[in-house]
Amino acid sequence: MAWDRNQMAARAAQELEDGMYVNLGIGIPTLVANYVGDKDITLQSENGMLGMGPFPFEGEEDPDLINAGKQTITELDRTAYFDSATSFGMIRGGKIAAAILGAMEVAENGDLANWMIPGKLVKGMGGAMDLVAGVGRVIVVMDHTNKAGESKVLRECTLPLTGKSVVDRIITNLGVLDVVPGGLKIVECAEGVTEEELRAATEATIVG
Amino acid sequence: MKKVYATAGEALDGLLHDGMFIAAGGFGLCGIPELLIAAIRDAGTKDLTIASNNCGVDDFGLGILLKTRQIKKMISSYVGENAEFMRQYLSGELELEFNPQGTLAERMRAGGCGIPGFYTKTGVGTVIAEGKEVKSFDGQDYILERGIVADLSIVKAWKADDTGNLVFRKTARNFNPPAAMCGRVCVAEVEEIVPRGSLDPDLIHLPGIYVHRIVQGQHEKRIEQRTVRKREDA
User: Keyword Transferase, does the record have it (chain A) (predicted)?
Assistant: First the structure.
């Protein structure tokens, strides 16, 4: 037993507090928006928008209104638009409280790799390097192991980095870990997962 | 001060030369200067270096300049939606410089503001930092990135007045203001040119000082990923 995609997103939503400005990455992080409940959260889209709304109703798509994943979206009564330099100014300047992102690998010192696999097609880092370097708190949401069953929570990343010592918390299908001095600390195990199972699936050093 | 031109081709007349450096606005296919890109294709200008967040798709946006082999080098943050791009890149025909998205935007803004370089923590400890000066401020490392000054900027806005003051619409603003600022000459294409005095001076997004030529035209405004939600049944 472990958490599925929606349960991981729901767990990640618990990290968000009333009044936060937050940037959500593509994939499972996008689902986090479905679980914020009554909390007053403002979503940033790094192509130039604060206050991102849901997908439009069919027939109401606007080509001038997209998110960073190039999907059509809508605005809210709180929405503000701005240019890309201003957008990354607020990211780099630490005004965005948290970013929730996917990852290929995370290391015990908080190193993050999520933008390129050498030898495979490289599409680019987009805004990921700016986000992890700039926002207040970086939360990674990903599967604990890859398709081959190997740990993605490592002593050291093997892939080119997106950021060095940038991750604060890791939420996987098996549980929640924090980056602390000396390694990772288990915060909680997913429903039906034992601490032994979580440790066995983790290559990184677990402390405490 | 005549800034209004009848067609995109006329607006670019005398500004294009082989090997030039162009900064282009737009994010994905949103807010791209599609008419000016088509006019550059028609002009046949070659060996272009283009700074733009993306490179369009195969048959729209900057992608059409790839098809005609007019681009020598791209400076971009993400090029995922373009098969021809990957083909030319992997075969060595096309050079590519990846910039983090915020670094690219700030390089344009800085270049337009007379700032030749700036320090950022984006990319510290990654391949992006290779060969760049590292400097520590208050115990934190930063890398030096250069401002961009382009020979020409091409941008898309919603409305302009005839003095070049621009107003953008929703997320179609994106890279257009910083791209406009970093060009020695900037040509803007707009959906509507309105008489001076009809735009609220307090609500101008980019002052006309940055905009040298304007052309009005019809835009296709293609949607890259149409995502919708279902209406609740009544």
Answer: yes
